[in-house]
Amino acid sequence: MACQQLLIFICLTGTVQLCCPDGWRKGKNSCYYIGTSLKTWVEASGICQAFHSELVVINDAEENFLLKKIITNIKGAFSTNFWMDGSDQITEGLWVWASTMETIRYTNWEQGEPNNYIGIAEDCLELYLSNFKWNDIRCTHANHFICEKELTTQDQVGELVGKR
Ligand SMILES: [Ca+2]
Ligand SMILES: [Ca+2]
Ligand SMILES: [Ca+2]
Protein backbone atom coordinates (compact mmCIF):
# COMPACT_ATOMS: atom_id res chain seq x y z
CA MET A 1 0.00 0.00 0.00
CA ALA A 2 1.45 3.39 -0.97
CA CYS A 3 1.73 6.08 1.68
CA GLN A 4 -0.98 8.30 0.16
CA GLN A 5 -3.46 5.44 0.01
CA LEU A 6 -2.45 4.57 3.53
CA LEU A 7 -3.26 8.08 4.73
CA ILE A 8 -6.80 7.80 3.36
CA PHE A 9 -7.08 4.46 5.08
CA ILE A 10 -6.03 6.05 8.38
CA CYS A 11 -8.60 8.80 7.99
CA LEU A 12 -11.43 6.38 7.23
CA THR A 13 -10.75 3.87 9.95
CA GLY A 14 -8.80 5.77 12.57
CA THR A 15 -6.31 2.92 12.60
CA VAL A 16 -2.69 4.01 12.56
CA GLN A 17 -0.69 1.73 10.34
CA LEU A 18 2.79 2.75 9.32
CA CYS A 19 4.71 2.18 6.12
CA CYS A 20 8.37 2.12 5.09
CA PRO A 21 10.15 4.64 2.83
CA ASP A 22 10.62 3.74 -0.84
CA GLY A 23 13.32 1.14 -1.31
CA TRP A 24 12.96 -0.18 2.25
CA ARG A 25 11.39 -3.52 3.17
CA LYS A 26 8.82 -3.86 5.87
CA GLY A 27 9.30 -6.28 8.76
CA LYS A 28 7.30 -6.84 11.92
CA ASN A 29 8.24 -3.63 13.76
CA SER A 30 11.01 -2.35 11.49
CA CYS A 31 11.95 -1.21 8.02
CA TYR A 32 15.09 -2.66 6.45
CA TYR A 33 17.39 -1.26 3.80
CA ILE A 34 19.54 -3.88 2.09
CA GLY A 35 22.71 -2.20 0.84
CA THR A 36 24.06 -3.77 -2.34
CA SER A 37 27.32 -1.78 -2.45
CA LEU A 38 30.44 -3.10 -0.70
CA LYS A 39 31.58 -1.15 2.37
CA THR A 40 33.72 -1.50 5.49
CA TRP A 41 31.79 -1.80 8.76
CA VAL A 42 32.42 1.88 9.65
CA GLU A 43 31.39 3.09 6.19
CA ALA A 44 28.23 0.97 6.28
CA SER A 45 27.36 2.24 9.73
CA GLY A 46 27.74 5.83 8.51
CA ILE A 47 25.47 5.20 5.52
CA CYS A 48 22.74 3.82 7.79
CA GLN A 49 23.03 6.85 10.08
CA ALA A 50 22.72 9.18 7.09
CA PHE A 51 19.36 7.46 6.47
CA HIS A 52 18.36 7.99 10.14
CA SER A 53 18.83 4.32 10.90
CA GLU A 54 21.48 1.95 12.28
CA LEU A 55 23.09 -1.26 11.08
CA VAL A 56 20.64 -4.08 11.76
CA VAL A 57 20.17 -5.48 15.25
CA ILE A 58 18.87 -9.05 14.95
CA ASN A 59 16.90 -9.54 18.15
CA ASP A 60 15.60 -13.09 17.70
CA ALA A 61 15.33 -16.14 15.45
CA GLU A 62 12.17 -14.75 13.89
CA GLU A 63 13.99 -11.62 12.70
CA ASN A 64 16.95 -13.69 11.45
CA PHE A 65 14.50 -15.80 9.42
CA LEU A 66 12.66 -12.74 8.11
CA LEU A 67 15.90 -11.26 6.76
CA LYS A 68 16.71 -14.58 5.13
CA LYS A 69 13.32 -14.41 3.40
CA ILE A 70 13.76 -10.79 2.29
CA ILE A 71 17.30 -11.34 0.96
CA THR A 72 16.47 -14.63 -0.73
CA ASN A 73 13.66 -12.85 -2.60
CA ILE A 74 16.15 -10.30 -4.05
CA LYS A 75 17.97 -13.01 -5.97
CA GLY A 76 21.27 -12.34 -7.70
CA ALA A 77 21.90 -8.90 -6.20
CA PHE A 78 24.52 -10.07 -3.71
CA SER A 79 28.01 -11.51 -3.94
CA THR A 80 29.00 -11.68 -0.29
CA ASN A 81 27.87 -11.28 3.33
CA PHE A 82 26.10 -8.47 5.22
CA TRP A 83 27.19 -6.21 8.08
CA MET A 84 25.14 -6.14 11.27
CA ASP A 85 25.52 -3.66 14.14
CA GLY A 86 27.44 -6.07 16.42
CA SER A 87 31.04 -5.53 17.49
CA ASP A 88 33.58 -6.64 20.11
CA GLN A 89 36.05 -3.84 19.31
CA ILE A 90 35.93 -2.36 22.83
CA THR A 91 36.36 -5.56 24.85
CA GLU A 92 37.57 -8.61 22.97
CA GLY A 93 35.02 -11.41 23.28
CA LEU A 94 32.27 -9.19 24.68
CA TRP A 95 29.81 -8.73 21.84
CA VAL A 96 27.57 -5.67 21.93
CA TRP A 97 25.19 -3.93 19.55
CA ALA A 98 27.26 -0.81 18.79
CA SER A 99 24.28 1.55 18.40
CA THR A 100 23.02 0.87 21.95
CA MET A 101 26.04 -0.79 23.63
CA GLU A 102 23.66 -3.54 24.78
CA THR A 103 25.12 -7.02 25.20
CA ILE A 104 24.07 -9.32 22.37
CA ARG A 105 21.64 -11.92 23.78
CA TYR A 106 20.20 -13.87 20.86
CA THR A 107 23.01 -15.20 18.64
CA ASN A 108 23.12 -17.40 15.56
CA TRP A 109 26.87 -18.12 15.28
CA GLU A 110 28.17 -20.47 12.62
CA GLN A 111 29.81 -23.53 14.15
CA GLY A 112 33.28 -22.61 15.46
CA GLU A 113 32.51 -18.86 15.47
CA PRO A 114 33.28 -16.34 16.80
CA ASN A 115 36.93 -17.36 16.45
CA ASN A 116 38.72 -13.98 16.33
CA TYR A 117 40.78 -15.67 13.65
CA ILE A 118 44.36 -16.10 14.76
CA GLY A 119 46.62 -13.30 13.59
CA ILE A 120 43.79 -10.99 12.54
CA ALA A 121 41.47 -9.35 15.09
CA GLU A 122 37.94 -10.10 13.97
CA ASP A 123 35.76 -7.55 15.76
CA CYS A 124 32.75 -6.94 13.54
CA LEU A 125 29.65 -9.03 12.98
CA GLU A 126 28.53 -10.32 9.61
CA LEU A 127 25.53 -12.34 8.44
CA TYR A 128 26.43 -15.10 5.97
CA LEU A 129 24.71 -14.93 2.59
CA SER A 130 25.03 -18.73 2.27
CA ASN A 131 23.15 -19.84 5.39
CA PHE A 132 22.30 -16.70 7.40
CA LYS A 133 24.51 -17.79 10.31
CA TRP A 134 26.79 -15.25 12.04
CA ASN A 135 30.56 -14.78 11.84
CA ASP A 136 33.11 -12.39 13.30
CA ILE A 137 35.38 -10.86 10.67
CA ARG A 138 37.81 -7.95 10.45
CA CYS A 139 36.00 -4.62 10.30
CA THR A 140 37.87 -3.37 7.21
CA HIS A 141 36.45 -6.22 5.08
CA ALA A 142 34.12 -5.12 2.25
CA ASN A 143 30.55 -6.37 2.75
CA HIS A 144 26.98 -5.59 1.83
CA PHE A 145 25.00 -4.25 4.77
CA ILE A 146 21.54 -4.05 6.30
CA CYS A 147 20.12 -0.89 7.92
CA GLU A 148 17.15 -1.04 10.27
CA LYS A 149 14.80 1.61 11.54
CA GLU A 150 11.79 1.14 13.74
CA LEU A 151 8.38 1.62 12.15
CA THR A 152 7.21 3.77 15.07
CA THR A 153 9.89 6.37 14.40
CA GLN A 154 8.91 6.77 10.76
CA ASP A 155 8.83 10.57 10.48
CA GLN A 156 7.00 10.99 7.22
CA VAL A 157 3.85 9.15 8.21
CA GLY A 158 3.89 10.79 11.64
CA GLU A 159 3.75 14.20 9.99
CA LEU A 160 0.97 13.18 7.62
CA VAL A 161 -1.14 11.82 10.45
CA GLY A 162 -0.43 14.92 12.53
CA LYS A 163 -1.92 17.21 9.84
CA ARG A 164 -5.35 15.60 10.12
CA1 LIG B 1 15.83 -5.64 15.06
CA1 LIG C 1 37.06 -10.12 18.26
CA1 LIG D 1 35.45 -15.57 12.34
UniProtKB/TrEMBL annotation:
Annotated C-type lectin domain residues: 27-148
Record's signal peptide: 1-18
Chain coiled-coil ranges: none
Keywords: Disulfide bond, Signal
Highest taxon of the lineage: Eukaryota
PANTHER family in the record: MANNOSE, PHOSPHOLIPASE, LECTIN RECEPTOR RELATED
This protein's name: C-type lectin domain-containing protein
